[in-house]
Amino acid sequence: MSIRILIADDHHVVRRGLVFFLKTQKDLEIIGEAENGRKAVEMAKELKPDIILMDLAMPEMDGIEATKMIKAEDPSIKIMILTSFSDQDHVIPALEAGASGFQLKDIQPDELVSSIKKMVNGESQLHPKATSHLLANLSHSSNPKKKLLDELTKRELDVLKEIAKGKSNKEIAASLYITEKTVKTHVSNLLAKLELADRTQAALFAVKNGLVK
């Protein structure tokens, strides 16, 4: 099955460049292009993409507001922010809006393809600058869900800490000496207990609650 991609960017040259490159890749299908956030919301509702490559600074509606609306309408759609901005004023709101990934436009093409595939498989994909902003700015934030940590088993807590480090299920399995299937079970359980949508939200939760130093 091909991964169905919607590209949202107000720069025509950027959009065409992404389309041109991604069309050459096996298992990727470009199903639409949006020139602003409002159009991205409309097309997401109509086309039901697997993933959206979302710019932040766009006319009519920016990428953060579009991400909020798309995730509210259909939480299953993955959104990767692809932008030139890496400061905390863009990173934090984008992730809190529901984006599962944050990459800069200077990313290597092959790395972008890899990130797209990993995100569709449930892994969060954060640029190192985005991760550093999370660690620096969220570790002391208050979190009303903190008491939910008490619901987790020790092993689920271990898995949560590994997720926050950006590790894949395979890497977590190797670190904790358990099978990938067991990791998947723990991930599903902890997301349910913490009332979180995906791994990126779990990583945010872990950082906010000081589980990652």
From TrEMBL:
Residues annotated as carrying 4-aspartylphosphate in the record are D55
GO CC annotations on file: cytoplasm
Domain HTH luxR-type positions: 145-210
User: What CDD domains does the record point to?
Assistant: LuxR_C_like, REC_NarL-like
Give any GO molecular function from the UniProt entry. DNA binding
Top-rank taxon of the source lineage equals: Bacteria
Protein location: Cytoplasm
GO biological-process terms attached to the record: phosphorelay signal transduction system; regulation of DNA-templated transcription
Q: What is its main location?
A: cytoplasm
The alphabetical list of record keywords is:
DNA-binding, Phosphoprotein, Transcription, Transcription regulation
Q: Name one Pfam family in it.
A: Response_reg
- Where is the chain membrane-spanning? none
Name of the protein in question: Response regulator transcription factor
